[in-house]
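Hello,

Our lab assistant flagged a job as stuck in the queue for most of the afternoon. It eventually completed. Since we weren't sure the result was trustworthy after the delay, we are filing this so someone can double-check. Below is the sequence as submitted and the structure that was eventually returned. Let us know if re-running is recommended.
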Amino acid sequence: MKSAMCAEAIVAGLSVETLQGTTLDVGCSGDMLTINGKAIISNKDILATNGVIHYIDELLIPDSAKTLLELAAESDVSIAIDLFKQAGLSTHLSGNEQLTLLAPLNSVFKDGSPRVDARMKILLRNHMVKDQLASKYLYHGQTLETLGGKKLRVFVYRNSLCIENSCIAAHDKRGRYGTLFTMDRVLTPPMGTVMDVLKGDNRFRMLVAAIQSAGLTEMLNREGVYTVFAPTDEAFQAMPPEELNKLLGNAKELASILKYHIGDEILVSGGVEALVRLKSLQGDKLEVSSKNNVVSVNKEPVAEADIMATNGVVYAISSVLQPPANRPQERGDELADSALEIFKQASAFSRAAHTSVKLAPVYQRLLERMKH
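-- returned structure --
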């Protein structure tokens, strides 16, 4: 390794890079030091004038000499590897083919290993990318071609790197011919446009009709980058009948409300931090947050996340979102802000009388707002 490291300095979960470039996971298990989870250090802390030596009981084979199967054997992806084998894809993992394997963690399969049918075989082929990649060279908007013929999109967020709905959960393992990406969920390639997704799901029949009435069908069918928070039929039916009829009968207002449900970029759930403000096509911002693996928009929990489309991502939601101007509380906050502005300017007026001319317009705006 590039620096001297005594045993006392080693803590659990430490990753270190060798001079050759391989990353080793160094840790401890009780009184024993481990390398890649194995207690193979037999004698430690032999000091030299230019470093420190630890004797080990096994020869460490660098990742760069290993096949994808060998790399996977040292990672928490055994269930996924078994699925690839059942699907008849072992030769891709042990040969000299240049590819990148997107392998979901074992923890993803909470209900056990799924059955490998024809559909699953296609899905697994779409977890194999036709090139040996390194995650540090991936960029936002990049497309990756899979063995299954799909084009997968790369999304780079502040603290996560995602491919479609699935995000990279650990450091790459780069082998002789292939690279292993450990993923936090099973990847679902997009199957159609946003409109295709909505039309193909019976939960969104009222939303589809509303989109058509508002003249937004063409927009959601063409190429683009949208995050759509899609109210279910139950969400529309939960609205007061008079309010719903009024909304559906006003195409302009309906279009504005629907555009407030559409973000102007693709935000998958893995890219959501404590709070992300996403600009809507209507102009106001949506507050998207994540807590305990539950995504919310404007504090309303999402019913289903990451329904991928070729021009965006769809979230199913159980309520119709209202822009800030339509919310009484938000309007009250705006009035309070205006009152605070008046107070600040009045204070300035008491200190400098010549600034009084600035007070009148603000006061007039507040009076006008309070009339409505």
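-- support follow-up --
The delay was a queue issue, not a problem with the job. The result is valid. Residues 232 and 348 are 51 Å apart (CA to CA). The mean pLDDT is 88.
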